[in-house]
Amino acid sequence: MSGPVRHIVMWRLRGETAEERAAARLKVKTAFEGLKGRIDGLNHIEVGVDVSDVDYACDVVLVTEFTDAAHLQAYATHPEHLRVRQELGDLRTARFQVDYAIEASVRG
């Protein structure tokens, strides 16, 4: 795959109460937003926190765009990314991911 790649990850997070889940959501959002400008080839990062509160929704979505698949692959083992993963520990209960090529006509 050549050209830009979009990497989307969604998580369900731990928390017994609404307050615990809200704190977990904020922690994930803050940690990933801290990666802005720290990783080569990471051109866009957006973190959304679910506001629907429906039982089948994920808690947080991460939308990133990389220059190409090689930069996405490098991100997986980048020290800053690994630091965030360690910082978040076992907050997640489920993780879903989609990676796909961004077509030029879609980007415009």
TrEMBL record:
Pfam families: Dabb (PF07876). InterPro entries: Dabb (IPR013097), Dimeric_a/b-barrel (IPR011008). SMART domains: Dabb (SM00886). Residues 5-100 form the Stress-response A/B barrel domain. Signal peptide: none annotated. This is Stress responsive alpha/beta barrel protein.
